[in-house]
């Protein structure tokens, strides 16, 4: 594992929540496992501020804030992210990225969506059908890891009714 400042920030999280294979039950095409590269818009989380990000706000209704939504994944040695609807999507059958495009289908700890309010502030959720966080405790642990990377961080909460991370923002985000 390459050691970076962000690797250290996510170390406790990785120790507490094991990596696992992606859930491929909703896979429709082989290119959902095709790994994108930096040339395709793949970024790696670094210490705040995040350079050259598209800013926006998390959705309060379905299908809002799509043009500024990033997918993220905590891999075993990095935290890659990319715009879900970036230029890279044009070469994919489904027309948008999946979390496994960030990992090439390899095991990862968790994934979701995030919005940069500005280069030092982010709001995230655990909305990943491939690497969904498994509990509210895991979501909070992820928030602490993002915060250790010097970001002002909030997550969108846990939907107790569904037993999954919330996909849209109801009320104010939970600042950590």
In short:
The chain has one domain. The chain has a seven-stranded mixed sheet. Strands 7-8 form a two-stranded antiparallel sheet. It has about 180 residues and is α+β, with helices and mostly antiparallel strands.
Give the tally of structural domains: 1
What is the number of E strands? 9
User: Pairing-aware structural class of the strands and helices?
Assistant: alpha+beta
Order of helices and strands: HHEEEHEEHEEEE
Strand content: 15-25%
Tally of alpha and pi helices: 4
Helix content: 10-25%
Give the uncertain stretches in residue-range form.
none
Average pLDDT over all residues: 92
* Alpha-carbon Rg, integer: 15 Å
Distance N to C terminus: 28 Å
Major beta-sheet overview:
7 strands, mixed
Properties at a glance:
alpha+beta, seven-stranded mixed sheet, 9 strands
Your description of this structure?
The protein has one domain. The protein has helices at 5-9, 11-16, 99-103, 136-147; strands at 43-44, 70-74, 80-83, 110-118, 121-124, 152-155, 158-159, 164-165, 174-175. The protein is globular, with a radius of gyration of 15 Å. It is of the alpha+beta class. The strands form 2 sheets. The protein has a 7-stranded mixed sheet. The protein has a two-stranded antiparallel sheet with strand order 7-8.
List the helices and strands and how they pair.
Blueprint: H1 5-9, H2 11-16, E1 43-44, E2 70-74, E3 80-83, H3 99-103, E4 110-118, E5 121-124, H4 136-147, E6 152-155, E7 158-159, E8 164-165, E9 174-175
Parallel strand pairs: 5-6
Antiparallel strand pairs: 1-3, 2-3, 2-4, 4-5, 6-9, 7-8
